[in-house]
Structures are given as C-alpha cells and as structure tokens.
C-alpha cells in the first residue's frame, strides 16, 4: 500500500499565508497535478482543520480522469476521510459547499464513536492508530491513500514513518509566518528522500515527487 502526501508549498516552506485561513497557493498547474493525484487514489484523508478553513474539498473535474476511475470500477471521486479528535464534526457549518459536493464523506475519529455516523457522512471509522487505520483500509482494498494535509496530519503521519511519497508543488511565493508545512513539534522519522519526478507546471510552479528512502 502507498500513502502519498500532496501539498502546495511556498518557496519558504509555508502551506498557508501568515493569516492562515483558506490557503490557495497553487495555480492551474498545481490544480492539474492535484486532480491527477486524486484520480490515482482509492481514498483521500484530510484534517478537520483544513475542512474548517475551506468549507469544501478538492474534486476531480477533468472528464478523462473520471473516466479512468470509472473504467477501473471506482467512484468518480475517492471517498474523503475527515480526521478529527471529536466524535462529531464540531464547528462544521451546514451552509458549507462540502455537503453538496459529489463526494462520499467518511468521519475518522480518535474519540469513541457514536452509534451512527454523523449527519452527512456515509461511514465513521475509529482512529485508534494511524497504522491500524492503514491496515484496515488495506484489508478493504484501499491501497492508494492520498493525504491532503494540513500540517498537523502531515506531521502525525511523518512522525510515525507512514508516508511513502511526498508530492510537493513548489509555488513561486515567499510568505513568511508560522504556517510551515510541518508543525515545529513534528519529528519525522525519515529524513532522506529519493527524487522520483520533477516537472515544470508553468507559471513558475514545479512539481517534486519523492519516495521515502528504503521504499521500493
Ligand atoms: N497548501 C496546501 O497544500 C494545503 C493543504 C492542506 C491544508 N492547507 C492549509 O493548512 C491549514 C490547515 O492546516 P492545520 O494543520 O491547521 O489543520 P489539519 O491538519 O488539516 O487539521 C487539524 C485537525 O485535524 C484533527 N487531527 C489532527 N491530528 C489528529 C490526530 N492525531 N487524530 C485525530 N485527529 C487529528 C484535529 O481535528 P479536531 O479539531 O476536529 O479534533 C485537528 O484540529 C489551512 O490554512 C489550509 O488552507 C494547505
């Protein structure tokens, strides 16, 4: 199974501007490779903080990518697991665009689960450990897991050495501020990564895809 972390980052390693909020660092080229990564994935995972900031999630819009998924017997969009420490989606606004998106939502919580998934969610999964979650997904046939951030989730999974691939779009921005793509407290286990792909995406953006050393 493969866990790929996908982020758009500034030249100074930020994933959001100093004020935080809904970061939109990437341009058209980044959008394109993000959709390709979503098309690759069996499931996607995102932190509740990112969903709170945006009120929606990213979708595959390109018909050829949707067709590829359909021809593999997959849904048009990968199910989206939203990770939280709460039993229910605290602070999630009923007016958000998220609820109308053509996405199957799965609630992923480290709190004791309720009897039924929260409203709007097709499933709820217990997050006892990240390793246990990945084993469960693998057993269900979900072998390609896309991690959409944000920093807290990236830090948690890198700290447990569970990220196999890093896909970064380097955006031609210098943002400053405290929103590095890893929280200062994160202590990633793998410090060396092997470059797998580099691609110019236009408008000064560059895709870098790395594999964790020792992964083949
Ligand atoms: N540039 C990019 O590619 C990119 C990508 C993603 C996000 N972002 C930006 O990043 C910012 C949000 O990132 P963030 O780091 O604040 O938030 P995040 O990582 O998306 O979400 C943090 C939340 O995830 C839940 N969580 C974290 N660790 C957990 C664990 N071990 N177990 C269970 N749940 C856990 C908690 O939710 P609860 O509070 O519900 O318990 C926590 O508040 C926004 O500005 C967003 O725009 C940028």
The coarse overall form would be globular
Order of helices and strands: EHEHHEEEHEHEEE
Question: According to CATH, what is the class?
Answer: Alpha Beta
Strand percent estimate = 25-35%
Record the strand order, biggest sheet: 5-4-3-2-6-1-7-9-8
Low confidence ranges: none
Query: Would you count the extended β strands for me?
Result: 9
Mean pLDDT score? 97
CATH topology: Dihydrofolate Reductase, subunit A
The hetero molecules present are: NADP nicotinamide-adenine-dinucleotide phosphate
Distance between the termini: 11 Å
**Which class of secondary structure composition applies to the elements?**
alpha/beta
Which superfamily, in CATH terms, is the homologous superfamily? Dihydrofolate Reductase, subunit A
Largest sheet: 9 strands, mixed
Kindly state the percentage of residues in helix.
10-25%
Radius of gyration: 17 Å
The figure for the number of domains is 1
| Number of helices, where a helix is a run of at least 4 consecutive DSSP H or I residues | 5
Describe the structure.
With 216 residues, this protein is α/β, with parallel strands linked by helices. The protein has a single domain (2-212), classed as Dihydrofolate Reductase, subunit A, CATH 3.40.430.10. Helices cover 22% and strands 26% of the residues. It has 5 helices and 9 strands; from the N terminus they run βαβααβββαβαβββ. It has a 9-stranded mixed sheet with strand order 5-4-3-2-6-1-7-9-8, with helices on both faces. A hairpin with a 2-residue loop joins strand 8 and strand 9. The relative contact order is 0.24. NADP nicotinamide-adenine-dinucleotide phosphate (NAP) is lined by residues 7-8, 15-16, 20-23, 25, 47-50, 53, 83-86, 90, 110, 127, 148-153, 156.
